[in-house]
Amino acid sequence: MQIENSTTHDIAEIFRLYEIATDFQKTKYSVHWPKFELSLIETEIKENRQWKIIINGQVACIWATTFSDPQIWEEKNLDPAIYIHRIATNPDFRGQNLVGIIIKWAKEYAKANGKRFVRLDTVGENEGLIQHYQKFGFDFLGLYELSNTDQLPAHYHHKPVSLFEMQI
């Protein structure tokens, strides 16, 4: 197993995994991911913020990171944190604790970059995800109404977000 940055060669697979995740979300939740812009993924790749887990030569999971997330975290964005977005798992690798692997990696990555928190969010009040992230050591900070969503993907518009953080 390896964790490495995604490359432009991974774009088709990234979008395939997003589509699978979105289709799953549609069967379980009222809020699901929109179709993401190619330019967003290209920027993340260029800035080394799009990641992947490789197992036996296959992309098992993807996610994106940033060190700044002001529209979601507002005044808390001033804290030194890494923010994780859009975890999508290849169905062939479900059940292999990949989120736990990402969290372990994120804590080390945060420390190496002088950050004190690992944070993530999910749109809406999804009890299953809340419990899932708490199981990995995240504190659930509650549901928040965002004041400015104009630069965020469509699924953030007019919906509260569940915020999670882990101090390292």
Automatic annotation (TrEMBL):
Superkingdom of the source species: Bacteria
Keyword Phosphoprotein part of the UniProt annotation: no
Keywords (A to Z) from UniProt = Transferase
For this protein, the record's InterPro entries field holds:
Acyl_CoA_acyltransferase, GNAT_dom
Q: Which SUPFAM superfamilies match?
A: Acyl-CoA N-acyltransferases (Nat)
GO MF: acyltransferase activity, transferring groups other than amino-acyl groups
Output the Pfam families linked to this UniProt entry: Acetyltransf_1
Name the PROSITE patterns for this protein.
GNAT (PS51186)
N-acetyltransferase domain spans which residues?
1-168
- What is the protein's name according to its record? GNAT family acetyltransferase
Q: Which organism is it from?
A: Pedobacter ginsenosidimutans
Q: According to the entry, what is the taxonomic lineage of the organism? A: Bacteria, Pseudomonadati, Bacteroidota, Sphingobacteriia, Sphingobacteriales
